[in-house]
Design brief:
Distance between the termini: 37 Å
Organism: Aquilegia coerulea (Rocky mountain columbine)
CATH topology: Glutaredoxin
Keywords: Disulfide bond, Electron transport, Redox-active center, Transport
Pfam family, one: Thioredoxin
Number of helices: 4
Number of strands: 7
Structural class: alpha/beta
Shape: globular
Number of domains: 1
Radius of gyration: 14 Å
Largest sheet: 7 strands, mixed
CATH architecture: 3-Layer(aba) Sandwich
Protein name: Thioredoxin domain-containing protein
Order of helices and strands: EEEHEHEHEEH
CATH superfamily: Glutaredoxin
Domain Thioredoxin: 5-137
Oligomer: single chain
Length: 139
């Protein structure tokens, strides 16, 4: 697709991604990547008690479907600014992936108030977009 993404770090525990979208525009992604369990747990504590939707992309650098869906995930993060988008590398934070029962990649979990409200396995952009629209409304 010609998309190229790189990661820049705000500290050793947390980073954002930047990249260029298929339309040639270069944008800063709103996707947060966590690199330590402590940073992930701190984030989970911060969203507990809120109904803002968080979408987690469990992926791996070697996973072809993960690379395929990454531009779409970044595009969704730019479109749905009321939703938090997170990326977790299963090789980097294996215990987090195991905690959520991730068995295939990519797996997307939608979380509200610290609880999983939906799950999508596979690189299915349309289904992911529908579920985001469904769950982003305050309930």
């Amino acid at each position: 697709m010609g998309s190229n993404y790189s990661t820049y770090s705000t500290d050793e525990n947390y980073s954002f991604q930047t990249g260029s979208y298929p339309n040639g525009l270069s944008k800063e992604s709103r996707v947060r990547a966590f690199h330590t369990i402590n940073a992930w747990k701190k984030y989970l504590d911060s969203i507990n008690g809120t109904y803002q939707l968080t979408v987690i992309d469990f992926s791996a650098s070697w996973c072809a479907p993960c690379k395929f869906i990454e531009p779409a995930f970044n595009e969704l993060s730019a479109r749905f600014t009321d939703v938090i988008f997170v990326k977790i590398d299963v090789d980097e934070l294996m215990s987090v992936a195991q905690e959520y029962g991730v068995e295939a990649m990519p797996t997307f979990l939608l979380i509200k108030n610290g609880k999983v409200v939906d799950k999508i396995t596979g690189a299915r952009k349309e289904e992911l977009e529908k579920k985001i629209q469904k769950h982003r409304v305050q309930q």
